[in-house]
């Protein structure tokens, strides 16, 4: 069995969860959906399949202290800091360098820090299939999600239906990838859903360290070159200045666009385990357990004649009377009141605050 | 011309304006409707007709420091403190004792501290008519408000239509009172409105000091007796202990019920000057100036697709998206979100906080 490492990507800012999420407290560091923060739940979810000493987190300088506090079981040296966010390809490349030093034959699982998975048993089962495929082939493996609605907020992956002799993994719902599709419009999303051969791109990946570094070398040679500069000083006092310098010159690019769409041997495992990227307050409401009035209430809240609403309050008290279908998020210094179904517009509030340089509320 | 004094009654608690109004900051000490607090506006409104040295305020111990701050032009000795609220009759009797010491022939105008009046010129005109009637007769004069809707939240006064020879003031819309009516149900209120001979009881009164004290002696002999005890020690060091003692034994009674309904010579001036007792957030919305989306916005607020709503925020920021007909009042430690038309239920939130002894939010 391969030696398996995890990379948890925790660089996101999460403007869509304003006012709960802030620059210092992005979505993954918050208990958005019940107990535990999203990053704590991400670590808990791989308990038993990956050791804590083999779990890496990539984040930024601002979030690192909170992450160390929230994840006391992860060795602090495993929490890597990027000087600036450059999307997922540099992040994955950087972590791969660290893991290669420990075990060049290792398999690496890449997990966003801010997703929710309800059926952890099924998730484990798919991960072990993915590890097997990654170990036995030179393939890049991604986990796709069986769609249950024509969602326009996710990218899609088209699966290739092949006979067993061409794809020996197909009986375990591991498909070769035909194509990656960007976030579609509603009409296209409906077509994808109907066709049955599209899954959502979850942003979770499994591959051997050697495989991903070779694919980066092949498809992103500039990044490869810069990663080599970092590799040469890993563990020395020159590491930080070189890292700063590298992140100053490399371009921002996602692993999907930079590598996955170009690589020759890409697999997708079709998963169905109650996944959500909890991308908005509406999505939090959708997946949360409701009371018999359809409400999701957290904290110091008094309600009268309230239906189908999500209400969160901290130490402040929140009184709500005679409303329905509302999102009410009351924090120490900022409040959101939003009609359910409109939470994508929260980003506009954040943009406004940025334009007006009201940084204390960001 | 009579020497005219004002008594501003500022003892109210104002649970209906939670979370803006609190035990320490009741409605009259807040800028509920635009610039200036209600009590500041009440003082400003009699500017030019009553001197500051002739203006008295009756309040309680908790509110006194704030009132001194909010009304720097009123001599602090004119701000009288009741040990406990006993409704309007004792409050008026107490102030009358102080005024009688200065000028026993004075006329006294009684004004609640928490009303709004839009047409100050018309208000002044009616006050001077009232002062004339009070000076020339032994009557108690009250100011009634021409109703414009079948309001069930106010008491009503029925006017007596008499020929000029029986009531020489009737050409100036000064009527003798036929009867006082308690807050009616909707059907009765509609009948009152239709009949045309009912006005709202505004709680504003004008009378000679001698007249009101004689009427109290006649109709509330127990209160008269206790007021005499206070009068005997006025200006001495025994004042405070006697006052405490008196307020411990007298019963709570309104001047309307205790005196006005029983007195023989009561006049009501029919007024129409944009009066409101601003009794609820719905009423604040009703009287406020709206923007072209029907919104009334105060403070640090960002809106998108919001209509017909009243939104107040302090230093915190409030973002509101895609709602209509809401009352949103965001204070440092408490938030109200309420459907417009439901603001009478705010009292239930306050009652709940009391029951749960959550005193920090009261």
Element layout with pairings:
The structure is a homodimer of 362-residue chains.
Chain A: E1 4-9, H1 38-45, E2 55-60, H2 64-70, E3 79-82, H3 88-102, E4 107-112, E5 116-117, H4 120-136, E6 140-145, E7 156-160, E8 174-181, H5 186-195, E9 198-208, H6 209-219, H7 221-233, H8 239-249, H9 255-260, E10 266-271, E11 275-276, H10 281-287, E12 296-298, E13 301-304, E14 310-313, E15 317-321, E16 326-330, E17 334-339, H11 346-355
Parallel strand pairs in A: 1-2, 1-4, 2-3, 6-10, 12-14, 13-15, 14-16
Antiparallel strand pairs in A: 4-9, 5-11, 6-9, 7-8, 7-9, 8-10, 16-17
Describe the structure.
Chain A has about 350 residues and is α/β, with parallel strands linked by helices. Chain A has 2 domains: about 5-275, Spore Coat Polysaccharide Biosynthesis Protein SpsA, Chain A; about 285-360, no CATH class. Chain A is built from 11 helices and 17 strands. In chain A, the strands form 4 sheets. A 5-stranded mixed barrel of chain A has the order 6-9-7-8-10. In chain A, helix 3 (about 90-100) packs across helix 6, helix 3 (about 90-100) crosses helix 7 and helix 6 crosses helix 7 (about 220-235). The longest helix of chain A is centred in the middle third of the chain and has 17 residues, at about 120-135. Chain A starts with a strand and ends in a 7-residue tail after the last helix. The interface between A and B is large, with 37 and 37 residues. Strand 15 (about 315-320) of chain A pairs parallel with strand 17 (about 335-340) of chain B.
| Quaternary | homodimer
Helix-strand makeup class of chain A: alpha/beta
Q: Which runs of chain A of at least 5 residues are low in confidence (pLDDT < 50)?
A: none
CATH class of the largest domain in chain A: Alpha Beta
Query: Proportion of β residues of chain A?
Result: 15-25%
User: What is the fold named in CATH at topology level of the largest domain in chain A?
Assistant: Spore Coat Polysaccharide Biosynthesis Protein SpsA, Chain A
Note the gap between the termini of chain A: 46 Å
- C-alpha Rg of chain A (nearest Å): 21 Å
Number of discrete domains of chain A:
2
